[in-house]
Amino acid sequence: MSxxxxxxxxxxxxxxxxxxFQQESQNLLGGMFTTVxxxxxxxxxxxxxxxxxxxxxxxxxxxxxxxxAVNWKIRKILGSRVGKQLRKxxxxxxxxxxxxxxxxxxxxxxxx
Length: 112
Prior knowledge:
about 110 residues; three-stranded mixed sheet
């Protein structure tokens, strides 16, 4: 059960991270199309778990490794954007969101 504060910060981080991935994708990730699907913040607001979806990428684990390699740059850009609203910028932990793959698998099974 998350508090209202956690929900507000999750929403803020999701919106800003989506803009960062949209605007800075060419510089940070070589133009890889990345979507932020879910952001969950811990109760102490110290860690944010970010679930990403990658489109038109053959190896999603390699794409996640690229994102983790520039984690500090993403956090720095995020800090410059939301620094006035948050006292401390949470540590960012990125994960692959495979719910779309799961949906496609179920859809394919239902068609057969």
